[in-house]
Amino acid sequence: MQLKWIKVIALGIVVLIVSGLGIKEIKKSQVLGNSLYRFNMVMIGSSSGITFLSFDPAEKSILSLTFPNDLAIKSRTSGEYSISSLYKLGSYSGKGGMFARQKVQGFMRVPIPGYTVTNNKKVMSKNFFRLAMIKIILGKTDTSLSRFDAVTLLMRSGRYSWRNVEEKELVRAGVIADNTYHPERMQEYVGSRLFDWNIGSGSVTVAVINASGENGLGSDIADFLTNLGLDVVMVRSVNSDSVIEKSEWQVGNKEIALQLGYVFEHLFGFNQARLENVPEEYRATVLIRIGGDAKELF
Questions:
Q1: What is the pLDDT confidence band of residue 24, given thresholds at 50, 70 and 90?
Q2: b/e map 179-217, b = 16+ CB within 10 Å
Q3: How far apart are CA 162 and CA 216, in angstroms?
Q4: From 2.60.40, 3.30.420, 2.40.10, 3.30.70, which CATH number describes the 2-167 domain?
Q5: pTM for the whole structure
Q6: Could you tell me if 261 and 273 are in contact, meaning their C-beta atoms sit under 8 angstroms apart?
Q7: Where are the domains of the chain?
């Protein structure tokens, strides 16, 4: 069996070389250079539900959570829709996979950089995941992953243990009660099981200033950052005359700016950090000013 997957991986590498897209694929990669960090992605059924996958390099494990098709996702910009309709909703603007990824990310309050679209309606399994990665390597699917990412995750699937989160586990955790999802319990579940120890071990403190004019948006961002492993020490709102449209962030440490860049720049769409020490009044390493553009994240 191992020999079989080695051949598959070798095929993927050959495809990369022959295609002549190596440099482009490296630039597109979301996994390359981030091997110490937890990697999250969603597998999106174009006419069915969504499965969340989390790769933990510390525990060498993969957590798989498939959402019920009728689960309601609330969006600050798009209203409330069932999770199975997110892909279709985003497709109207040509961004089906990206839109679904972003809204699930906002719902779970964890970074989800990766997505791939599949038409298969079967229950998620390690073998089905491997097949999906092979399709990415062959360039036959809608995805945000590069071929290098697909090869890397395919290799990890051979070394990591796989665990499907069953509904009874979510019931025990209070995430599901009376056939209803409870978002506040989902946050507790996520925070205890998807914590990124590599980021959390750095004890990076963050102050969040809500300058968007949207009530509660600062707290949404704070939940996201806490689940990521950061220590949010302050959430504050500004007066209506100080509202900004474009979010910004600053930090005095260049290494921390590079470490968090993929979250704030790639996932949030913020500009690069302003390398400047945060004023002492905020008592934080990183200062984030949330603008109106952040409403699209939730």
A1: low
A2: eebbeeebbebbbebbbbebbeebebbbbbbbbbbbeeb
A3: 36
A4: 3.30.420
A5: 0.76
A6: yes
A7: 2-167, 197-297
